[in-house]
Amino acid sequence: MRGRTPTTAPATAGEIFRLVRDGEAGTRTEIGRATGLSRTAVAARVDRLLAEGLVTEVVGAAATGGRPAARLVFHATGGTVLALPIGVSRTKAAICDLTGEVIAEDVLDQPASVGPEKLIAAAIPVLERLLATAGAAESGIRGIGVSIPGTVDGGSGSSIGVPALPGWEGVSLPPLLSGRFPVPVRVDNDVNVMALAEHAAHPGVDDLLMVKVSTGVGAGVVSGGRLQRGAWGAAGEIGHTPVHDGPGVGCGCGNVDCLEVLASGAALVRDLSAAGRDVHGVGDVITLVKQGDPDAVRLVRTAGRRLGEVLAAAVNLINPAVVTIGGDLVGAYDPLVAGVREAIYRQSMAAATQDLRIEPGLMSGRSGVTGCAILVLDEVLAPASVDAALSDPDV
Ligand SMILES: [Zn+2]
């Protein structure tokens, strides 16, 4: 077991669960060897994990001459989590298994502007219907992961003043869900959960920068294998970093030439409209790029270059192995990333860029749901949470 020394307290059931989930131990003998626990102590803890449905026993084919040892495996279908990635115009609702794999999902037909109470009240029957359709018992729900655009107060699970979400500031979201589903609810920023999903999709990569370019611009930072939220949950909020060669466009934050007013989807819609194109949303920008419209290609490349200018500093600072680009504008990937690469390679140190991969997100279109699932799974399947659940007489 990682970091375990002979002087620490005896391994708990939750710690044994982690060994099994991570594939570090599979038989009772291996668990005994990894933890130093007696056979009886291992058996007692394993029995509790089996009863809770967190692990299951698989008897393999008989080895030549010997009795096959029963192997314990993580029971991914031994429960579910609910995922609710909330967007300004679109919110998804999903049921996932305990690995974050989507079992069933649907899209809500309400924008976030209806307010948190109404939106979540509308999400609950959708989740109920998905559970019924999938035949998933409500008693198996272990938690709910929610994401919203903008900075989140992790303690209360509320939005910290997101201009895109009027009426959501300071409203604690977990109580709106836990009244109906009495399980842990975790809330995080939409780009952070996308970073969690991309991190899970990149095994072996511990340092990753996830950049979302949609109506707005934001980044999620995974460093040393962990999502970095920063002191106040605002790590990766790069949208209001000014660029050096902008035309002097004022931003709502009071600064001039912030990345968000020059390189976001909304900025491209504005600039292409000014150039006489019939564009109403990010989708129209992508269509023009795909048609090879020279102004659209040039403007997207410039946006990429400005994005790269800000990312270059981040690359120098945290030395990621992968910069993954996601969000709606990824549909215009080629000119966007050409600009990003140009700026990063010019402005970052060679040591930080020689093996740097700049790639489209592997989880494109799915990262919100999967990331919300991982957000809450990381908490409810952590050893301490498993131990707490096992010691609860009602569970
Ligand atoms: Zn700004």
TrEMBL record:
SUPFAM superfamilies named in the record: Actin-like ATPase domain, Winged helix' DNA-binding domain
InterPro entries: ATPase_NBD (IPR043129), ROK (IPR000600), ROK_cs (IPR049874), Tscrpt_reg_HTH_AsnC-type_CS (IPR019885), WH-like_DNA-bd_sf (IPR036388), WH_DNA-bd_sf (IPR036390)
Keywords assigned: Kinase, Transferase
Species of provenance: Pseudonocardia sediminis
Keyword Transferase: yes
Pfam families (alphabetical): HTH_24, ROK
Gene3D superfamilies xrefs: 3.30.420.40, Winged helix-like DNA-binding domain superfamily/Winged helix DNA-binding domain
Protein name in the entry: Putative NBD/HSP70 family sugar kinase
MF annotations from Gene Ontology: kinase activity
Family assignment from sequence similarity: Belongs to the ROK (NagC/XylR) family.
